[in-house]
Design goal:
The protein is α+β, with helices and mostly antiparallel strands. It is about 15% helix and about 35% strand. It is built from 4 helices and 16 strands. The strands form 2 sheets. Strands 2-3-4-1-13-16-15-14 form an 8-stranded mixed β-sheet, with helices on one face. A hairpin with a 2-residue loop joins β10 and β11. The chain is globular.
């Protein structure tokens, strides 16, 4: 049993068209479809960014018109990190984002240049050169290949309970420690980063412009993963058939909502029967009704 990097990240938007205008139109992420979210009948799910082994996309959005504005706080994800192939790509994106009216901040840490910006609803993003990120299918043909986003490389979260989180992440779930409050999950050919930052004052709020959860990829064995998570003292959902994948949800000790997702059946799993007993289980993720799946 091992995790295989980030499977996908899900955000929340109140305006699906504006969301697509930014992510598909400006960032050039391949748009993979819009479908009704069976877990939230009044909402749709937007899928973007096909990567190798992730045909349903690495970035999705729950489209919930009328939802209030969110704010990242303790126990919430706040930034999505993307890899580029070269420093020249950083220059390209500085110009492209600025021309689109997006404010760009240039940062440097450890000799590594980064770009930070936010989407129109407030979700934070970072671009950095990452030679290991090399997925040619992530972007559409609208972006020159050498400048295209080459991979989803990690996420950052706010968290105060970093010590118990470290015990769960590094000690039990197989995350590799890369620094203080920072970790990596080794994927096929690359690693996905996860780290904590000190939370800002004020309570976080789920809503438009916030990140709902991060999903970690697994080759299957979801019932076994569920038992392991429960054994760690975390509450977990049943194995859920989401149509495009099967998964479980739980909150790690700092409160960040995790999903472990599998595109197929692994050892110890069986195809759910086509009876009422085997129907899709829904945790009712509609953010206007509940801000979280668990707890």
């Amino acid at each position: 049993m091992r995790l295989d990097g980030i499977h996908h990240v899900t955000g929340i938007t109140a305006d699906g068209q504006r969301c697509l205008d930014f992510y598909a139109g400006i960032l050039g992420l391949a748009f993979l479809g819009r479908e009704r979210d069976f877990e939230a009948p009044d909402s749709h799910l937007l899928r973007l960014g096909r990567m190798h082994g992730r045909p349903d996309g690495v970035l999705s959005f729950i489209e919930a018109p009328g939802i209030g504005h969110g704010r990242a706080g303790d126990g919430m994800l706040h930034t999505i990190s993307w890899g580029l192939r070269s420093p020249a790509a950083l220059e390209y994106w500085t110009e492209r984002l600025s021309a689109a009216g997006i404010e760009v901040t240039q940062l440097e840490s450890g000799g590594r240049a980064r770009l930070r910006f936010a989407d129109p609803e407030g979700i934070q993003h970072e671009f950095a050169v990452d030679p290991s990120a090399n997925d040619a299918g992530l972007s559409s043909a609208a972006i020159p290949p050498q400048q295209a986003i080459a991979g989803l490389t990690g996420v950052r979260a706010y968290g105060r309970a970093s010590i118990p989180s470290a015990d769960i992440l590094a000690g039990r779930l197989g995350f590799r420690v890369t620094g203080r409050d920072s970790y990596a999950v080794e994927g096929e050919g690359s690693a996905s980063a996860f780290s904590f930052d000190p939370p800002p004052p004020g309570r976080g709020r789920t809503g438009t412009g916030s990140i709902h959860h991060v999903a970690w990829a697994s080759d299957g064995a979801l019932p076994a993963w569920r038992q392991r998570v429960i054994g760690l003292g975390c509450r977990a959902t049943p194995v859920i058939d989401r149509g495009h994948c099967r998964s479980i949800y739980f909150r790690e000790p700092s409160g960040v909502l995790f999903e472990i997702a599998s595109d197929g059946l692994g050892a110890g799993e069986r195809q759910a029967p086509s009876t009422a007993e085997g129907r899709r289980l829904s945790p009712k993720v509609d953010p206007r009704v509940r801000a979280a799946l668990v707890g």
